[in-house]
Amino acid sequence: MSIPYVPQGTSKRFRVPRTLAADFDAFLDRDIPNTNMNFELLHCWYDKFEQGYEPTYIRGEIYPDSTKSRYENTDNNMNLRCSLTSGIRKGDMVIEPDGTIYILDWEVHLQSNNAPTRAVRCNMVLNVVRHQDTIEVDENTIVGEDGVLIDEDGFVIEQKPQEDTSYLTDQTLTIVEDIPCNAYRYDGRPEYVAVSGTPGADPNALTLMTVQYNDQTKNIHIDDEFVWGDETYFIIDVNRVGVNIGGQYGVLKLQAKKKAGGLRYD
Fold first, then answer.
1. What is the secondary structure of 29-67 as a DSSP string?
2. What is the pLDDT of residue 201?
């Protein structure tokens, strides 16, 4: 005859240490080669270039992901743990003493004794431009490519003579200037795709980028362009899934493709 199991309430009192956060802070205070160090913290990258800028430093523990993979970019993914009082958030950028720049692309969910996130190593400097095919004549009038003057409500004001093109200029606007980001090739798509019935091949590889969301990068649009190495790329998607619900901070995920004829070889 078996003895039945009868559940009961616990008689134990588990003691939670009151020094959890203080103990981790004390650990961070110790320099450990390639692990514990000072990081310069930037909620906005462009703050660094403002007059009177004074850097903010935090202590952090950085270490690589234990996952070993043949896929692109996994070696740029690092884990970062900082003090609960560090104030880090998704989209922040941090700089190691040796100058290595990272962007924090995981939401910071506070743990019992630390603030954890992922730090992705930046491997390119992004400059985004936009080719402007219309210009303003005055504050209420714009000129279309065909020379039609249009008011702010979209109504035609005047058809300019076709030979008068002095008011039309080819403008290139700088949208984003010199911001480090992370970029890599999407592994799941071939570099070049042959198209039946057409000569040659299409440069159809996807380039994926993670960039800080700030007052400059929030203006990036589809079809904006940038140069990486010797090739020109155009943006095909701007993904805001990494921006917080209030639109104040976070990361943008960009997808880009090579522009046909965009080689810049010397």
1. TS-BTTTEEEEEEESSGGGGGSTT---EEEEEEEEE-S-
2. 58
Residue 239: the pLDDT is 97
Cβ neighbors of 18 (< 8 A, separation 6 or more) are none
What tens digit of pLDDT does each residue of 76-88 get? 999 999 999 999 9
Three-class SS state of 224: coil
- Whether the per-residue pLDDT at 203 is higher than 90: the answer is no
Radius of gyration of the chain from Cα atoms? 26
Pairing mode of beta strands 251-263, 231-239: antiparallel
- Indicate the CATH number for domain 20-122: 2.40.10
Contacts of 261 (CB under 8 A, 6+ apart): none
How is residue 147 annotated by DSSP? Answer: S
- Backbone phi, then psi, for 182, in 5-degree steps? -110, 135
Is pLDDT above 50 for 161? no
Domains of the chain, by residue range, sit at: 20-122, 126-133+170-263
Flag whether pLDDT at 140 surpasses 60: no
CA atoms within 13 A on the CB side of 86: 35
How distant, in Å, are the alpha carbons of 30, 69, 117, 207, 252 from that of 247? 36, 33, 20, 25, 11
